[in-house]
Amino acid sequence: MPFASEQDAQDFLVQNPDIELFELFILDANGVPRGKLLHRDELLAVYASGRPLPSTILGLSINGDDVEDTGLVWEVGDIDCRAYPLAGSLTRMPWRQIPTAAVQVSMHPSEGMPATVADPRHVLVQVIDTLKAEGYHPVMACELEFYLLDQQRDSQGRPQPALDRDGGRPRSTQVYGLRELEQIEPFLADLYAACKLQGIPARTAISEYAPGQVEITLEHGDALLAMDQAVRYKRLVKGVAHKHGMQACFMAKPFDHLAGTGMHMHVSLADAQGRNLFASEAPAGTPLLGQAVAGMLAGLLDCLLLFCPNANSYRRFQANSYAPLAPTWGVDNRTVSLRVPGGPANTRHIEHRICGADANPYLAAAAILAGIHRGIREQLDPGAPIEGNGYAQAKELLPTDWLISIQALERSSWAREALGQEFLKVYLAIKRTEYRQFMAEVGEQDWRWYLSQA
After folding, report:
1. Prediction pTM value
2. d(CA 78, CA 70)
3. Beta partners for 222?
4. Which of 89, 256, 288, 390 is the S-S candidate for 335 at Cβ 3.0 to 4.6 Å?
């Protein structure tokens, strides 16, 4: 895995003499950035010899608790594992009050052991390398939806949409509404400026299918770079929102009566010269595209936990909600799970619509690409595409249960081979622990349903 050179850091320090602090972060299995805040005089050492991080940093639950069953706690004495900066990740964070920059790190293949096996970015790199060895260069892009919420809860302690620039609070759904975008123009202006500064190719913004819900598309490119950008984009959105007195929420289903938030993944394969191998005048693309679709469908249940990793993720799956419910595919059809969008022949690709916005981009992309590789290797047939209402024609439904998804990944010999047995041991230990903790917690809904009636 290529890491950044010390010269990159030296150049950055010269060009940014005002920067005082550096936020060093690594992404854990849940997609949570974790790390340390360093002073300016500590940066060059990180580039020269890495930074030691405890093995437990990649074995934590979403609440930040050690998960002993990962094997990254007592068995290894919470050993220090060395992480190194990623090229191109050293960027300013213009929304911070103290002049601060961020640098993303990843575990070194050997010096980072045993935590290396739990690094989600390594999982994606391994899948990409497997495809490239056979002449397939994956190209991807991310569409991330999110809610802009007020930092203050309502009178009943519930989250609520953020105030707009006129001091009002959006109450109705105005999908594709231009006024809604105009009302958050100060936020969007700072967001686009920060994206430009960090080299993140943010493009079209739309008002989504709920009050305060927004989607901004990211430009397609090399799969690993695209996922790096998605990871940094989420941090950027949250930071800029906080500066504007708001909270950016990527939770899959923050409100029971409003639309969920998804992460649509666009994918194609190119040859070594960058030519799209899915390109075709036919709306359904090339036979290779069909095999890719078939492979993703075949591995959908096995990897559903990577696309929908949390208990809340499964509340998003409701009929006629634009959240897919079945292992289906179609051409220019938003009622299916895998959509082949229309457009010129050279743009032919697949839109994977399963993921919630709470998914880890590295792991979701790894599972998608592993499925594509399976379809090509086994020359699978996706069957006829769905035409019309995919919800009404579904013959088989995806499970809408967290535990079933955990068990499906545990049983999958294909996933162990494609994603790595050691990684899955860590990941499943985390998810099993979270499941037990979630089910053991007694909350408001229990009291409302059962306190007086049981």
Report:
1. 0.95
2. 11
3. 139
4. 390
